[in-house]
Amino acid sequence: MSWAESLIKLSTYEAEVLQKRLAEIVDRRVAGELRLAMLDAEGEAEMAFSAQDAAAGIYRAGFFEGLKIRKARVQAEIDVILVEEQGARDALAEAFEAQKKYEHIAENIRLEARKEAGRREAAAMDEMGLRKRAAV
């Protein structure tokens, strides 16, 4: 195995690791967004319940203040995850660029090897032709 092929394998592995990392980050973001949606639904349910029961209306302001704080906390987590996700996407893009470069280098090496083999073959054929002329 050539050094170029080794670099390609390493860069492929790195890209796979970064893809898994990105998938985990996206899963965490989706879970956070789901928690936020559940908090919204909880707020709507409380609104409907407190409209039906006058006694529940007393606790309504406290509930919504607590809900606001919980939603802000979850949104802050989502915001941090979004930054992490963008960093992971950038790292993955860089890994793919590096992989592409290594593949391009390996292809150039293969082309040069073919050209060199063709030159050697042509030189050998020329030499055989010269020998045949000299023998005649």
Q: How would you portray this structure in words?
A:
The radius of gyration is 33 Å and the shape is rod-shaped. The protein is mostly helical and 136 residues long. It has helices at 3-52, 54-57, 60-135. The longest helix has 76 residues, at 60-135.
Question: How would you summarize what this structure contains?
Answer:
By secondary structure, this protein is an all-alpha fold.
What attributes does this structure have?
136 residues; mainly alpha; rod-shaped
Discrete helix count: 3
- What integer is the average pLDDT? 91
Poorly predicted ranges (pLDDT <50, ≥5 residues)?
none
What's the total count of β strands?
A: 0
Strand-residue proportion:
under 5%
Distance between the termini: 46 Å
Query: Helix content range of the residues, please?
Result: over 70%
Largest sheet: none
Q: Could you give the order of the helices and strands?
A: HHH
**Given the helix and strand composition, which structural class is it?**
mainly alpha
Q: Mind sketching the topology for me?
A:
Blueprint: H1 3-52, H2 54-57, H3 60-135
Helix pairs in contact: 1-3
